[in-house]
Amino acid sequence: MKQFDVVIAGGAMAGMTLALAINKLSKQPLSIAVIEPFPVDDLAHPGFDSRSIALSYGSAAILRKFGLWEEIAKIATPIEHIHVSDRTHAGMTDIATQEVGLEALGYVVELADVGRIYYRQAQLDDNIELIQASVSQVTRHEKKVQIRLTNETVVEGKLLVAADGAISTCCQQLGHELTEHNFDQVAVIANVTTELAHKGQAFERFTESGPVALLPMSEGRMSLVWCLHPEHATEVMDYDDKQFLSELQTAFGWRLGKLKKVGQRASYPLLLRYRKENVSHRFAVVGNAAQTLHPIAGQGFNLGIRDVATLAESIAHSTHDVGCYQVLKRFKQSRSDDRDATIEMTSALVHLFSNDYLATRIGRNVGLFAMDNLPILKTPLLRRTLGLVSR
Ligand SMILES: Cc1cc2nc3c(=O)[nH]c(=O)nc-3n(C[C@H](O)[C@H](O)[C@H](O)COP(=O)(O)OP(=O)(O)OC[C@H]3O[C@@H](n4cnc5c(N)ncnc54)[C@H](O)[C@@H]3O)c2cc1C
């Protein structure tokens, strides 16, 4: 039976970032196992798939601290301008790098590219072992956790971390209760080519059916996240490219000229999933396993990486036993306010921006107008969007 200091279930964004961060921050090397059923280049990998995500300025700073940013920066497209608008009304706001005094408002990365970088780095690290399997059973003892895998082996750790996504077998095994709220929306994603160059601009447009976001990518492409009612999303997924682009053009408008080409589409049902308890005996929960958010404000991994950073720091500060009560207590206490505030902000935005009642329409137009007229870094929404959040 193999023994490790830390066993991480799930080798996607949260799990791999954590594995690489722990040894970067720890004074003495710690042995780490990452359990993940999918090889990184498998098209079916649920974590390193065709999605692009926006990393906030704050997330880039955390990745820099872990020594991971240099490689990721090579495949990242900076966001220099964010334009938020409401399809049928005047309220809108613009945020540019010059106003906030930062070199970029965020960075867009393709998850499949990040996956390849992470696996290359992990293979160079003698203290990290990648095990291709799933966790099937977890048994806890006073000083260790035993984890049975689907390949019939058993590994032991002083600490088990669940980074195994929204459903989280580990949390189910250990009775960490899940709260769910169905937003009754589906996100349709695709890469889109536009007539006019994006020039580092990101767009978020609120429509009667839900928000449409277009993020700048490499090679002049834009990454689309289009949130729709489930029946509408099913129709849109079935359209041919011409009909898809025509409907998207109507929803998004002409700010980037004609929408010319659309790549392969994928869809994600949108639910808020939340586990209040993010620690228990020799067990911690990070990333989507702790909370899965609506992508309206692009906060999912930007919140998850703050879980990861705080846990890696708590582990690095521990002098002897990485799974002891003090490590977990420090992690739990430091994460509570940020998790609650980000979940609340994201859910409030979904409700405010996803319907067309007159009162909310007026409210959101006033809100966008106010955002445009407040000293920029004083707006809590923007600070959180930029990831400038204390942990
Ligand atoms: C359309 C869309 C757009 C988004 N845009 C943004 C954005 O702009 N900015 C942002 O910050 N976030 C965004 N997000 C959220 C972001 O993608 C996620 O928060 C992040 O990728 C989650 O990573 P994770 O590692 O926590 O979980 P996951 O990606 O769910 O990974 C979990 C891993 O665990 C593995 N696993 C599952 N079960 C087991 C088991 N039993 N044993 C071992 N391993 C297991 C899985 O194979 C998987 O690899 C977006 C999400 C969506 C859907």
Describe this structure in words.
The protein contains twelve helices and 20 strands. The chain is an alpha+beta fold. The strands form three sheets. Strands 5, 6, 12, 13, 14, 15, 16, 17 and 20 form a nine-stranded mixed β-sheet that branches. Strands 1, 2, 8, 9, 10, 11, 18 and 19 form an eight-stranded mixed β-sheet that branches. The chain has a three-stranded antiparallel β-sheet with strand order 3-7-4. Helix 1 (13-25) runs parallel beside helix 5, helix 1 (13-25) packs parallel to helix 9 (300-317) and helix 9 packs antiparallel against helix 10 (325-353). The mean pLDDT is 90. Bound molecules: flavin-adenine dinucleotide. Flavin-adenine dinucleotide binds next to helix 1, strand 3, strand 12 and helix 9.
Quick recap:
The protein has 391 residues and is an alpha+beta fold.
